[in-house]
Amino acid sequence: MEQNKERSEQSEQNHWQVIHNNRQVVSNTPESLWINAMAYFKWCDENPVKLNRPVMSGKAAGTEMQTSRKRAYTVKALCLHCNISEDYLRDLRESKDKSNGYFIVVEKILGVIWSQNLENAMVDEFNPGMTARLLNMEKEDAGTKAITVNVVNENIPELAKSENEVLEKLNREIQDAEIIESEKSQKVNLDTQEE
């Protein structure tokens, strides 16, 4: 009973209150970083953002009603929760050392954050425009580069103008192949007769 009361009091706190509530977080191994990240994700899931919204119609019109929305996972809050800096997280990711346990954990963590934000934006739980900016989705689209095509063989046959032309060409190639095959078999027959 006492645990439930303590848990309900903790769930009513803001994230900064949980972090600084005499709690020492250590993320000095990849495993502990992952465990702390999971604790952060769990805390976000168990502590939605509470909003006071005015009631617009009915008997309760003019009063406020408390609603709750999912809490978005963010890199900044994750870093606070795991007691690491954003620069540290960025450096680990940019190392691209796939044999490093930290790199693997950071990639997984950032993937979870990215997919949670995107999935909730797609169903209008989160603001889609804000989410796109936070996830740097505009940069991915804007980063297109010109494609250079180098022709390797200059003896490329001309493209057909219609399907019929393609079929006619295929028929000619089949006929030519049949002629070559029959010539080969005739030559084999002549060679065997001469022996």
Walk me through what this model shows.
The chain has 195 residues and is mainly α. Helix content is 60%, strand content 6%. The chain is built from nine helices and two strands, in the order αααββαααααα. The protein has a two-stranded antiparallel ribbon. Helix 3 (30-46) crosses helix 4 (75-82). The longest helix is centred in the last third of the chain and has 32 residues, at 163-194. Mean pLDDT is 79; it is low at 1-11.
Give a topology summary:
Blueprint: H1 2-11, H2 15-19, H3 30-46, E1 49-54, E2 64-69, H4 75-82, H5 86-95, H6 101-122, H7 128-134, H8 137-142, H9 163-194
Antiparallel strand pairs: 1-2
Q: Give the SSE order as H and E letters.
A: HHHEEHHHHHH
Provide the structure class. mainly alpha
Q: Approximately how much beta-strand content do the residues carry?
A: 5-15%
Report the principal-axis shape: elongated
| Largest beta-sheet details | 2 strands, antiparallel
The helix fraction, in percent, is 55-70%
Which strand order do you get reading across the main beta sheet?
1-2
Number of helices: 9
User: Oligomeric state of the chains?
Assistant: single chain
Instruction: Please mark out the parts with pLDDT under 50 across 5 or more consecutive residues, or reply none.
Output: 1-11
- How many extended strands? 2
> What is the average per-residue confidence, as pLDDT, rounded to a whole number?
79
The span between the termini is 103 Å
Gyration radius over CA: 33 Å
In short:
It contains nine helices and two strands.
Name the descriptors.
195 residues, mainly alpha, two-stranded antiparallel ribbon, 9 helices, 2 strands
